[in-house]
Known about the structure:
- By secondary structure, the chain is α/β, with parallel strands linked by helices.
- About 45% of the residues lie in helices and about 15% in strands.
- It is built from seven helices and five strands, in the order H-H-H-E-E-E-H-E-H-E-H-H.
- The chain has helices spanning about 1-20, 30-45, 60-70, 115-130, 145-150, 160-165, 170-175; strands at about 75-80, 90, 100-105, 130-135, 155.
- Strands 1-2-3-4-5 form a five-stranded mixed sheet, with helices on both faces.
- Strand 2 and strand 3 form a beta hairpin.
- The protein is globular and about 55 Å long.
- The two termini are about 30 Å apart.
Amino acid sequence: METLVSLALGLGLIVAVFRYLASGESEEDPHLTVRIQARIKRLERYKRLPEPVFEMTAPEFEEYIADLCRRDGCTDVQRVRGDTLGGQITGYLPDGRKAALKRNRECGDRPVDAHSLRTFDDAARAQLGAEVTILVVLGPLNKHARRTAARRGLTLIDVDRLESWMRGTTLSALLAPRTGRSGTNRTSAHD
């Protein structure tokens, strides 16, 4: 996995430097430096995952997530496919609520956007009857996506939270709302 991460890091740096050189600018671009540093930081986070997540095929990753759900007491856990939903996992949480999980293993530079979250949330609730929606995402999320997830009560499991889940934190603990703000709104752990 370290080889894969190193290769992705190297390729990302090469692309960024090539874009800079192709731009024909003679002065240093501070935005390029910031983007390169952000990419390095994000790829460093992926190295902490205890399993070779990025070496798994999409079905293997889905089954791995399903096994984590089963470990945490979820019942009737199964992988499902659908036109609108893509790779999904459904099941019942220990408290009896129906949950739908979607995986997004992509780690490219393009962040998951709010529209994608809304589409998943709406489809999972309408087509699958989900009461709880969870997105397991290893790529970046923009601030609008995080706000949308918090407003809708959609749980985001990013690299840090996936690492915690893989090391033994229960899914129920990951679903618990943060209470660090005043007011009655549920907040995402990513606010």
